[in-house]
Amino acid sequence: MKRHRGRGLAAAGIALALMAGCAPADDNGGTVPNLALVPLPAALEQVEGDPFELSADTSIEGDPDAAAALLALVQARAGLTPDGTGDATVSLRIEPGGVAESYRLTADAASVVVTAADPAGLFYGVQTLGQLVARDGERWIVPAVEIDDAPRFAYRGVMLDVARHFHSVETVKGYIDRAAALKFNALHLHLTDDQGWRIELDSRPELTELASGMAVGGDPGGFYTKADYREIVAHAASRHMIVVPEIDMPGHTHAVGLAYPTLVEEPVISDEIRRVAQEFGGGLPAKGTPYEGLAVGFSSLRIDDEATYDFVADVFGELAAMTPGPYLHLGGDEALGTDPDDFAAFVARASGIIADLGKTPVAWHEAGDAPGLAPSTVGQYWGYVRPTDGADAKARAFVQNGGGLILSPADAIYLDMQYPGKADLGLAWANGPTSVERAYSWEPGTIVDGVEESDILGVEAPLWAETLRTAEDIDTMAFPRIGAAAEAAWSPATGTSELRTWDSFRTRVGGLGPLWASQGIAFHPSDEIPWATE
Ligand code: ACM
């Protein structure tokens, strides 16, 4: 078999034609598919030769979890339930020793073989294989390819805000499935905010009894029982994801005051709070009354009261025991109702409480330059692709303090920003609306000056839920832009090959339309993308 080797997919003339969206006739009179791979693998070669034909008697062998994941993908995409009676085999095996989460996939006419360093890598190899399955006339095929793949960053996150609007366990599990398919490995749950408290804690039952029943716009609230949370954590683990719970402090704590009035200050009503109330409704925040509006930065825990730290210790102590992953997120953003020195003292103490529990604290970038922040606290940068207002300096301070950085540039991968020309869902404050091209066109290595590649723990795409009520709303805002975030998190740096470009991405992501549709994903059919139809 003749192979185009050594220079990646682009070395093959046929491949370039494919990536440009052409669909030339093949020997069987069908059409050769685009390779709709997102995120782009680290190394990808199209191999000359017949494709593997997937049929009802294909045999799927090897690791049972990976085989079950592949079967679900093949059933959704092709409507096939391979029964293992034929000679053509898909082999799924773990071969320890390689880089964590890496895999190798080879496909030719006789077989498909996926080998991986660990179960996560095998799962990712299966996801890639699912993306390769394509219709070719009357048959379903996997094109002849060789792929060697491993992640650029160890932390690849999505965040879901379940505080502004509550989202059910089923919706969260669905989002886990969708994110894991794009090789994300962390689900950050924004569990608390001014509008509601969403996690049951035995040590503080009043939080869910008194502060969970409301949401933005007077919509119904809700909360996760401890059993619900365990179910989410277990489902995430089955998809090789950790859960990172966030309890946002010392601001974003109006709801805490519904349960514990003595722990919070009076709301600080600025002109900006009045402006937001005028534009979006919800009235002005008043202590002891549920807040249904969209304003931020008016609430604060009482910094000088020791009872506050008993509360912080109870909350994070219980969360630490419920959370197998290494991170607990303490928030720290937009604490405009807290005096800056008090803020610094608070985040230093809260991060220390988390570190003493044996967990790694995570905080939004505002906390970065607080003296006394626990060493190795991870920072989450949510400034713009071109930093403003010293946000990059605060992010750099986490690195100087021994921590890593998670990059969530708001004007690129805040997935709740409106799409251009579509104002019915989402907000627009982050230089919005945000096109798919803008979600794609940034490079993690160049956001914060003076930060090395090894200082970047990873990339996370937040999804705030002020305007998002349903699982369909979540799908529509996330897809296809979540694919751009996945590529920033997993794939080699922007521009390192002609495939790691917007032109290539838009064709590849467009090729995923039929797979997403078969999985019931209500993606936004953006007109920036040349969507494949079958
Ligand atoms: C944030 O968007 N306030 C982290």
Please state roughly what percent of the residues sit in beta strands, choosing from under 5%, 5-15%, 15-25%, 25-35%, 35-45% or over 45%.
15-25%
Q: Do you know the CATH architecture of the largest domain?
A: Alpha-Beta Barrel
Here the CATH topology of the largest domain equals TIM Barrel
**Silhouette:** elongated
Query: What top-tier CATH class of the largest domain fits best?
Result: Alpha Beta
End-to-end CA span: 29 Å
Low-confidence stretches: 1-33
The description of the largest β-sheet is: 8 strands, parallel, barrel
Order of strands, main sheet, comes to 10-11-14-15-16-17-18-19
The portion of residues assigned to helices is: 25-40%
Small ligands present: acetamide
So how many helices?
A: 17
Number of strands: 19
Q: What is the CATH homologous superfamily assignment of the largest domain?
A: Glycosidases
